[in-house]
Sequence to fold (234 residues):
Amino acid sequence: MNGNISIMIDLQSIWDRMIEFRDEGERCVKSIAYWREKAAKAEKEAAAAKEGLLRLQASIKEKELDLSEKEGLMKRLDERRGLIKTEKEMAALEHEYALAAEARDALEEATLNDMDAASAMENELAGKERDLAAIKAQEAADIETLTAKQKEMESGAEKQLQRFDVRINDLSADLRSKFRKIISSKEGKAITRLEENTCSVCHTAIPVHIVMEAGRGEKIMNCTNCGRFICVEG
Ligand SMILES: [Zn+2]
Fold:
């Protein structure tokens, strides 16, 4: 086998290892983002539940004030009863009293309904706060583990990259920049093995004379389509 080819195979395997470290590191970054998002969502939900409850409690207070106002009015009307001189005045008072009593009853009912709703919301809020605490505890622990792993993966990738940079100097100088350019591309594959005279990466049929030339192992040949270095075992 051409010496350059075996160096390329070696470089490719170093690069593949580097990519594995990098991919695993990226998975850690994604998991960290997932936890942060999950915690932020739980926090937002708990805050919204709390805000809803506070609003309802304020409205209950307001109703209670209205209620005592109506009761005050009814009491004052009661006290005036004894001072009424005419039937007309009495009828007006009774009318006013009935309206106040009606309003009081409606307020009483609405307040009771609100209180039931507030107690359900309190339970819901407590549940959300428990969820939030659990998520935050898990988030902290997981993010710590993931961050450590991510750093390890980053340094693993860095080490492979350093190995790559050293090893590439063993390659003939005229091949280095092309090899580096191809391997840095999205697919991360600079060499291709042939599968029945077809490039295993881009699946283009390679002309027979190039396959034969590559097979002799004296010259470095490239895929006529994607430019990857053809590697023929032997
Ligand atoms: Zn190809």
In short: The chain has a mean pLDDT of 95.
